[in-house]
Amino acid sequence: MVACVGWATGLLCAHAFSILLSNTFFAAQGWSTNLADPTPLLYTLPIPLVVVAWINVSVNRTLNRLDPVAIFEQGKLAMEETGGRSQEASGRKQGKARSTSHPLSSWTFYLRHRRRSILLLAAIGLMVLGVALPGFLAAIQYDSILPLYLGYTTHPTIVSPGFTYHAVSPDIVAQIRAHPAVAHVIPVKALSMVINIPLAGESTSMPVYAVREQDLPILLDTYGLRLGEGELVQPRSDHVVLTSALARNRNLGLGDAIGHPVHERDGMPTELTVVGLLESTGPALVERAGYDVPPMPRWAGFASYEYVDTHERYAGTPTHVLVVPLEGHDSEMEIWLQETIASPRVRIDTLGSSYRFWQANVQTAQTTVGIGSTILSIVAGLGLAIMNYVFVTQRRDEFGTLHAVGHSRAALIARTLRESVSITTVAWLVGAAVCIAGVFYAQATLYAPLGTSLDWTNPTPWLFTLPIPLAIVAASAGTIAWTLSKLDPMAIIERR
Length: 496
Fold this sequence. Notes:
The protein is an alpha+beta fold. It has helices at about 1-30, 40-45, 45-65, 70, 80, 85-95, 110, 115-145, 145-150, 170-175, 215-225, 245-250, 305-310, 330-340, 350-395, 395-405, 410-445, 460-465, 465-485, 490-495; strands at about 155-160, 180-195, 200-210, 225-230, 240-245, 255-260, 270-280, 300-305, 320-325, 345-350. Strands 1, 2, 3, 4, 5, 6, 7, 8, 9 and 10 form a 10-stranded mixed sheet that branches.
């Protein structure tokens, strides 16, 4: 009954909080939410079931080992430590086995009560794992789509026609070509192919540009790419070359085909055969000042402009323009394009605008994940603090005796703090180690095969775990302080 009432109360609070978020944060972002979705309800079902099963096993185990005669005789069994043996026999054994030269050490209590210690370590470690691992997986998810946003804008700027246009106006192209900071103006036909995002499937598409024969070497040099395997695209051929990272994302090799009907979600009405794989000539880094971008693979693909431009099925394919700046004039050209050329007729995608767009999407997603992780951390911290509170209150005799023989309240509170900090730190490290192992495994099995990378310097997932140790330490110190304020040490000595 307690588990069911708590479960129902939690669901009501969660639903009320969801309504609040839907009407504030999500509404401000222009998103709609389905509050009638029963899926979250199903996720919570194991919680009351596990609670009831655990209590049933625990109580059944206690009753099976209980000696009712000893209870009537007011004997102390210390069932957990002695396994049902007599007090006298167990006392002799414990006195010999559990003697220590550091009776006031922070680890003495936990070493003497190992089952309780293991339970606390496991609970804290699992809570840290449960909070940090989803945060890391979400962070990997955000990093994995970074090449999608910055794949083509690391040096060139993309000038795209507006929504109602199929090509950039010739007068705008001529104006761009005449600017002194511009080295090349390259027209491209914009196709698209879907990519695999780990844990999300083929839910996103990225551009593949059809390029003229004379422009392809310029773009390869601009992007720092070289032909690693196969051959380059020939004019008027239904061929395509991809970077090896992009090919790995789709599990493609030389001779494989993309586009319709091989893959209906690709934005290509005909089949294009992969004839070449491109490799980076150097580290795939964005070294422009002001952009904190981690190392990332290069995602890019090029087809034949002549083939797309003359094929009837590609009629209406939009024509974009890639603007390559002179060496060292990247920022000057981007600022000029943004201030002079940008209009409803054209859209300008620079490294800065693409990076800010990626950051905005990441911040929105992180806020959503952060709200859930924070709530989970607080709830987990409170639950573990309550468990620690029970453990501390069961030690009234210990603290009362120490207080009676001369240890001050401040010293006992400090000792409790050291115990809580030490056990929490060890448990946090254990949970963190398991989390890191899980992230390594996910990176090796899910993300690396799809050509995505991982930024290990992201501290955000660890920050979500801070409420757990803080709540435990605060509850422990508060509990012992409250207990000692009401404790009569003489009553403990007199066994009242």
